[in-house]
Amino acid sequence: MANTDIMLNLDNPQYYNNRELSWLAFNKRVLDEAFDLKNPLLERLKFIAIFASNLDEFFMVRVAGLKDQVQADFNKPENKAGLTPKQQLNAIAKQNHILVEKQYEGFTKLQHALADEEIAILEMDDLTDMEKNTLEDYFDEQIFPILTPMAIDAYHPFPMLLNKSINMAVVLEDTYEVEFKTRKNAIVQVPALLDRYIQIGDSNRYILLEDIISHFLYKFFKGYRVHSVTEFRITRNADMTIHEEGARDLLKEIEKELRKRKWGAAVRLEVRGKKYDATIVNFLLNVLEIHKDDLYIIDGPLDLTFLFRFYKDALVDHENLIYQTLIPQHPQDIDSKESIFEAAEKRDVFLHHPYESFGPVVDLITEAAVDPEVMAIKQTLYRVSGHSPIIKGLKQAAENGKQVTVLVELKARFDEEQNVHWAKELEKAGCHVIYGMNFLKTHSKITLIVRKKKEKIERFVHLGTGNYNDSTADLYTDMGIVTTKRKFGIDATNFFNYLSGFTEKPEFNHLSMAPFDIRTDFIRYVNEEINFHQLRGNGHIIAKMNSLTDKEIIRKFYEASQAGVKIDLIVRGICCLKPGIEGVSENIRVRSIVGRFLEHSRIYYFHSNGDERLFLSSADLMTRNMAKRVELMFPIYETSIKKRIREVLSIMLNDNVKAREQASDGTYHYVEAKPGEALIDSQMTLYDMAYNVLEDEE
Hints:
The protein is built from 19 helices and 27 strands. The chain is α/β, with parallel strands linked by helices.
């Protein structure tokens, strides 16, 4: 039996998963989907691309941040698993090399499967002479004029290469020197503006741009023989340091930092392993100051994010190789003949995307824009689509003379450039644009529409777990409500006044706000659940989120588990909590669902001795969300909506197709159906339910 004194020390690093390693475990679950034969072939290919894209961002931000700490001689262990920055980097390198090897193993298998469907990514040696001649003409006309070979010598220093660009290091031999062959080096960058692959004729056969360039490189170097070509790709530190204190114009500060992002310090070097020059690789490691642990010799093409585009091109003639098209259904809480405003006047409206249409959320803005009775629209925007109907509606509303106030979060990572663009567009249309708050990201999802009807002011409030992005609304699972309850309207008004003016944080009727209240309120609810359990023995907490990293909340979960409270956690990504540890977390179960849709909704449920409390939130239970972001958590009061959300949670907790559970050592394994047990894919079950509800109404 374990030592009780040790087990009660909830700061013991053995009870926690490291944040970065837990993220790698999540990305492995994404990669596992590429090997799942239940997924259609092209969808499996897309999971390879998602894995690659995730990994790029991980290196640009998380690995880069750890390297900055090492560079600054910061050796303090992180506060959960107790690993120093150097230890984290070593562990990341060890695990990630295994994952990348598995990624390319999967890609090779999928290439063989694609060949069976007469879809192929070829190499030059696979082509006929006639096809090579056609490609040579294409190279001469379309590629050659764009490329610029860059010599490397005393007069030509090593060039500053763009983040995530594919490059070729070329070693040349002077053909005129017979006895002593002198070698020279050059760099050729593969242009990002050209298509990454070329279709061969009218077939489903393709060849990569870099293979064409490599084959015809000799045309640039007359008088020299190409000795070797080494394809490589650099990933750079892309985290932004925004100096908000004293910045007169945050918009300009963001734009300045965006220009720097392309040229940050190198943090990863990928080299295509087909044929590379070891001397050149050592040269690159030296000139780029990259540690050998961050060198990845790749058994296949570099940068597999091109498979996103390839997926779309290949499916033109192969729709049988993708998921069946699912159409979001009309929301259950809105009658087919009602507008969103008419429905919300009668009842709180619950929306569950992508199973139910995102259309009513767009309608809130577009209908308000032309409604003569609407006086004001206020909204927070974190990420929106490239052709956002929300933005269009807000601009139209301002042009129609309505008071439009929009908080555009300029610090939304990797959407900064697009958000700068939208901020300028909205300002031109006459909207009042706020750029966020000093040192905090505004991540809350809230809209307030003020309407004057028969001399009476009405307030319509939308609160959600996801962004106002019509594109991702078809891919992410999110929830929201539209309410006209008076105190929600007052809370929304006070919230926007707090964001836009100079005032103390308001006292809300219903809302909890980070960085002030959410953690405190959440811990209070857990404490109350502990008390209920000690009195009644029926304590139960269910929490669904993207990530769980906040140590204070994790400790509180451990305390609740020690008191006997049953805790079910549905955590898609990072989870620093370890379940199933005797005396610490034996009453906690952790599962992760990775499937067709990206699980994005945040749901927090407390049994409360049968008087169930249920909250939705924009916030994950992460330290950054609790302390460094403006977030909102809001209660659900309507019994019918509570029932629907509780049913969603129940279905997810019974998923035995796409769910994995975490073991006490931090590893994850698929939940397997018991003999005779029905298979439950929670996402498909929820879609079928939305479809069947509509069918019943008709």
